[in-house]
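sorry to bug you again but im stuck and you know this stuff better than me. what follows is a protein written twice so to speak, once as letters and once as structure tokens for the fold. mainly i need to know what kind of three dimensional shape the backbone takes. anything you notice is useful, everything is just below:
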Amino acid sequence: MTAPSLDILGIGNAIVDVLARADDAFLRSQGMAKGAMTLVDADAAQRIYAAMGPGVESSGGSAGNTCAVAAALGARVGYLGKVADDALGGVFAHDIRAAGVRFPSQPLVGGAPTARCLILVTPDAQRTMNTFLGACVSFGPEDVDEAEVASAAVTYMEGYLFDPPAAQAAFRKAAKAAHAAGRKVSLTLSDPFCVGRHRAAFRALVKDEVDILFANEAELLSLYETEDFGAALAAVRAEVGLAAVTRSEKGSVVVAGAETAEVAAVPTEVVDTTGAGDAYAAGFLAAHAKGLAIAECGRWGSVAAAEAISHFGARPQADLRQLVAAR
């Protein structure tokens, strides 16, 4: 087996993020469920965008954020995702490549426009997301480059991409290509509402194909339909070789076979929770690529997550390599 040329290959919704501050009254006026990710159509996206305050725009999407943060930590990273041949698609491609991420995907011509996620951050640092998937819904098995998958030690897939039906087939194709090449498959569950929409499919994918699972506590409880965290942890331990479960200020729990590591959260002032889970996965996988112990992988994840939530926006604004080196 040849050595991988990439540490991580992300597969996800290629989305341009638009972040703006808002109060609870604005969320109520727009009929939004606070803290949730809601899929919206083009008309709703236009209406919300017009009503939002001034925003910050950047390439985003869950796996895209993870890839950018992992690259900032020195990992060799690639990304597959569908953008349109339009202005926002150009913004996404330039931005993610500038972050040090290989982006070989071809743009969609003559179809839906590039996706955008309208993110409202309330004073309590919670983020409420309204996502217009646009060109993302066209991502299918034909967009999975098996050579790219085979070149990566870990193929990391985001649960949000599970909404378009063709993407589920793409996930399975990528997983099979990774395992055929002797590589690992990683999945983040992304959102408890997403898990609720696709629980059976997620359960099958996790059990049959996933080697490294990322979830927060709510997502894991939803996946196994229980309110007992210990029971959910036992269930995932039995099905997945390595799982990292984040618990906000309680830190995270990492399980691998009989091994368990409880990792403390890194104290910080919480400004914006956007991208916290994405950054955690990035830190964890970047450390994992170096062959570090699971507790140290969790610590890198905690450091990256703390940096992400300490400022507005999901991309790092500090030197993450220095932060993980400072114990």
The mean pLDDT is 93.
